[in-house]
Amino acid sequence: MVQVNIDGVDMELPRGISVLEAARSAGRDIPTLCYDPRLEPYGGCRLCIVKIDGHGRPETSCNTRVSDGMKITTEDEELKDMRRNILELLLDEKGISPDKIDSRKEFYSYLKRYGLAETGVNISGGDAAMRHYHREDNHPFITVDMSKCINCYRCVRICDEVQGQFVWRKWNRGSEIEILPYNAEDLLESNCVSCGACADTCPTGAIEDASVLHLGYPEEFTRSVCPYCGTGCEINIGTRNDRIVEILPVLDSPVNKGHLCIKGRYSYGFADAEDRITDPMIKDGGVWRKATWQEAYGKIACEFRSLIEKHGGDSIGILGSSRATNEENYLTQKFARIVLGTNNVDGCARVCHAPTAGGMGSTLGTGAATNSFNDIERADTFLVIGANPTENHPVVGARIKQRVLHGSKLIVVDPRKTELAKLATIHLQILPGTDVPLINAMAETIIEEGLMDQEFLDSRVDDFHQYREFLKTWSAEKAADICGVTAEEIKEAARLYATAKPAMMFHGLGVTEHIQGTQTVMDLVNLALITGNIGKPGSGVNPLRGQNNVQGSAHMGVEPSKLTGYVPIEKGRALFEDVWGARIPAQKGLDGMQMIDAALQGKLHALWVIGWDIHMTNPDRSVTDMALSKLGFIVIQDLFMNETAKMYGNVFLPVVSSYEKDGTFMNSERRIQRIRKAITPRGNSKADWQIISELAAMMGKSEYFQYTGPEDIWNEIRRVWEGGRGITYERISHAGLQWPCKDENDPGTEILHRDSFTIGLRASLTAVGFHPTPEETDEDYPILLTTGRSLFQFNASTMTGRSGNNALRPSDLLQISHQDAERLGISDGEVARIASRYGTTLIRCSVGDDVKQGVAFATFNSPLTQLNLVTGPNRDNLQNTPEYKVTAIRIEKIGQEAGNSHNTIQPLQTHPE
Amino acid sequence: MTANSSLVSGEIDSFYSLVQGLPEDGFCSGTTCFIASGGQSRGAANRGSRKIYCLGKCYAAPADVIHEGEFRIGIHASESVVISKIQGGPVKNLEAYLESGGFNGFRSAVKLGRKKIVDYLEESGLRGRGGAGFPTGRKWRSVQQQNSSEKYVVMNGDEGDPGSYIDRVLMEYNPYLLIEAMEIAGYAVGSGAGFAYIRTEYPHSIERFARAIEEMKAANLLGENVEESKFSFNITLKRGLGSYVCGEETALMRSIEGKRPEVSVRPPYPTERGLFGKPTLINNVETFASVPWIMQNGPQRYASMGYAKSRGTKLISLNSVFRTPGLYEVEFGTPIRYIVENLGGGLKKGSVKGLMLGGPLSGILTPEKLDIPLDYESLRQNGTSLGHGGIIAFGDDVGIPELMEHVASFASDESCGKCTPCRSGSRYLRNFFHDMNTGQSPKPESPDFFRRTVKSLRDASLCGLGTGLAEFADSAIKGYPEEVVKWFR
């Protein structure tokens, strides 16, 4: 601590903070324009100058650190006059008239404070005002009018320092400087990722969200959590007249630190999309009609009751939603277990990270990320495997990218040259489905070269000798042949991961969506264990979860064999039955994939699907369709009349979006965060928790579902889940807490397995043999297709497709190599047919060098492509997760005409503006 | 998607004036050439839209790219520290340099050892010759003490101040001495990598320096294992691309890094986080030039020359309006009048109306102040500064409003654009003087706004470009009130 005197008041302040931070913490509001806490201090605008005794001239407070005995004057007449002069110079430079600046902008507030808002400046009038300034109004989300720019360069700096995209550049020098997108006429043409950071930081509105110009500035902000990926960024929802007009990042969020991506920041238009369904609907004679809630509940209750009577509760299944809150997922499984009397409840973790939960759970004791996003800044090396964070978890991706740009090492394992792969120290561009040989060979290299953490092995790890014996069959040379990379590359990666420590691992669905997904995760755990890259800051095994609450959904017990807290049913039965006052069924439940199987076999008769579109997203479409058409009764609960509902639904229950309700989400790093109602529910739509409770009442079980609201449900969750007991709504009013958090004094857990593993003091290594996928190429299907998402769209585009994102990414793309394109006579942008052993579809091709010859990559976002017509039936051998990542296909040229017609298919509803 | 800032080059190039090199038909628009043209502004060179500010031929102004002209080299000190070897002209080649005792400074330094090298510099009283006058030994000590496996030594050869051609002559006539000095620095602070940053406006300096590097490498006096020792030192020559502000050390380092050469806030100081984020010793050419002599002759001999806190000798360059323009090594303490009248021989035409020391971005010294001694502090007290040591005299043919427009245009053209007072304030001052000179009537609020802007420039701008402009404007108005009175009534 240092003793500092600010404007005559003595105070004690932490060493190392800036004079600006010190003064602001003391309530002295020093004006700033180029300052943004997210950026390195810049000292450009000079508005923040203060006087420091003993210093010959004023100093900029943003970059000057407090030191002991410093005596600071934050404002006097002289400083006031200089500040006024600086503002005048800024107005004069481009001839800015104060009335052009919105009164909510920082710049305007200072003009007002220094008496310039009314008068403006008319001093050199002329030459500046004649100049042409860059303007853009063709981007769906961002407008630009550089005649309002005051050269603080925050846009340029935030694009460089936070997003790492380098789009906004300064051209020329001095008063001739122009800020323009790099190598492009406008943002649309540039490599801008539409994160909106520039518009967020701009203090004048020169770069501004298009929405506020059309709909007006927000009157109120509500702190909540983004409804897209599992990063769990905190957002401020700006509303005006009960409508979302802008979403901004929360500055003090530990997750996103004042940053968002296109999805969190701009893709909210779906909430007010014209085709949103806001009344319950019942299908009569093949035609949907509006119904009342009582009618809809009545119909469902009647159908469910009769099925239970005839076939038992196990004839019904519920697919819960990763989009819904923890509270709602908790009620979903409670409903299945005590209203329907079945364990047939599963969530979409089944199609993504169930192998992670399973693999890490069985090896370490906790099936969730070992570390936190804040470890990104503590890691020296990253191993990113089967994940493309800059597109799919963009805020995490941006944080990793910044570290790499500042010198951290990066190993990327991916069949594609992703953006991070292009920045990587080593990119292992393996063939899809060859993770296990690669990981085994890396482990073998580490042990062979003596690079393991012997102390950690001695004190925390079992079964080393068996494991070591097993690995002897896994030379880098052998793996290299299988993986399609060189042995030396594998060895280099192994050395880097083992020596440039701490090394932090991130994995995605590229690891899990394989027939050996769970075992691959266990193999990754091996790698972390032998190198001691676990239980320490900047290390760990960290899944990047796909959806906002997919971690929470399964953790709340939307899982056939687990109860809330991911507790096996038999282990939790006593406690849960005691708290619930009801019996939990003894029969084993079906997971999502088994429900499809059971439907095909005529054993499952009804399905209640909450917030997902399985017709669009389950693999091997024709089989899914056959199963759905065999079911007698399907309830769909969603925002939109989705494809599953249209084709197979019997009753539709309209829900609210997460912007319209309270509750909690759980992100990838085990953090429970509050979401809050920012707009009123649309029409007659209701929150999932209300619907579930009311339907339970309709089925005569109201006594088990008496809740005053989400917090009340949460408090019941705390009674059954020990790891969440210390997390109260009050404690997480800001920033959330990470479980385990056992009591109300527990600060939560940033890093798991520090001194011992959840499973015990020691964890065991697992020999993972290689069982290649049966999905092999042959003459008819010579190319291996792998799949994934794109930055601009999310999953089936249900939300992004209705939010204006189609303007930025209109269709799915199939990336193919130059060699394959040449062989097939397909040019860039051409639409081709892809055929697998399971089905065919049309897709636009993007020819490049991001994939190797013989490999293709397709996004699965667009309902026009319906890529699941093509993906196959294989599943993870332990968790049943579909093998979306490997399908043998052939690509057929169909000629340009078809391409054009494909192009003219109308995309989904766009943003209302 | 690209994600690498180094891929972005067009916008960086757009910062500079001379990315394409020096146009053969180019001419100089620097202050001495402006003065030599009788206070007439010279436009931009035919090629390219930006002006060339100073080709370092101030002795032969108005100058152009092709013609070289002649100048004197003289000594007015009890001993010559830096120019004894070039009094008769450039050192021909490495052989000649070695014959005249060259490289013995390095050998002496190695014998002294790292600690003593810095002790010597501290005891000698040598101060940075780039203008700031920071004690050189203290700077070396600071870099020496940094705990880093990677450090850099940088020679700032971006002598952009119109009126000064000191560094140009040193680099062109005796690059060996500078390389030797950089090696001493590398040895002392623990760095194996040097950068010599030389401006494009000095093509002969670049050429001679590059050749000297090759010669010394071939003779094992530079590069790996210098003279078969364990010491290795390599020098990369970086060509400036046409920007005055790159003479400022942080901008210069950004320029070497291939980034936009903006001035950075300090702290962190280059000694802690400089080039590529590593501890960096950056010194001006003349500072380096003094080091080998001090190593060989000891600090006392150096410190025995000089005045007050300004020890040793200083090179001074005189512009073309003097009778005997040239480069003079003078002992600190020599009265300015002696330099003007005895070394320069007075003006060719008329009498001195004013002296611009340390370039245009510094206060004007009016004739009644000529008796003050050459000394950092004395000059400071009289509202000007020593700067690089270029002295520009001007006579009665140069009008103050025109000179002010010229200087403000220079500042505005060369401002990096980062800080508000300099970017927008220099632009405003330029417009203000332009209006004055084109007979437009001032707005009633103009004088007040002018004064307030000058104050912001002086007290709130980020680097010497802005403060220097304020210093100049203040001194011009104070020194020649009759010429600007109607605007400041």
Stretches of chain B where pLDDT is under 50 for at least 5 consecutive residues are 1-8
User: What count of structural domains of chain B?
Assistant: 4
Shape of chain B: globular
The computed structural class of chain B is alpha/beta
- Hey, roughly how much beta strand do the residues of chain A contain? 15-25%
Strand content of chain B: 5-15%
Computed over alpha carbons, the radius of gyration of chain A is: 29 Å
DSSP helix count of chain B? 19
Give structural notes.
The complex is a heterodimer of chains A (913) and B (489). Chain A is of the alpha/beta class and 913 residues long. Chain A has 30 helices and 38 strands. Chain A is globular and about 85 Å long. The two termini of chain A are 53 Å apart. With 489 residues, chain B is α/β, with parallel strands linked by helices. Chain B has 4 domains: 22-70, no CATH class; 72-303, 3-Layer(aba) Sandwich (Rossmann fold), CATH 3.40.50.11540; 306-394, Ubiquitin-like (UB roll); 400-487, de novo design (two linked rop proteins) (Up-down Bundle). In chain B, helix 7 (166-173) packs parallel to helix 9 (203-218). At the A-B interface, helix 2, strand 8 and helix 13 of A face helix 15, helix 16 and helix 17 of B.
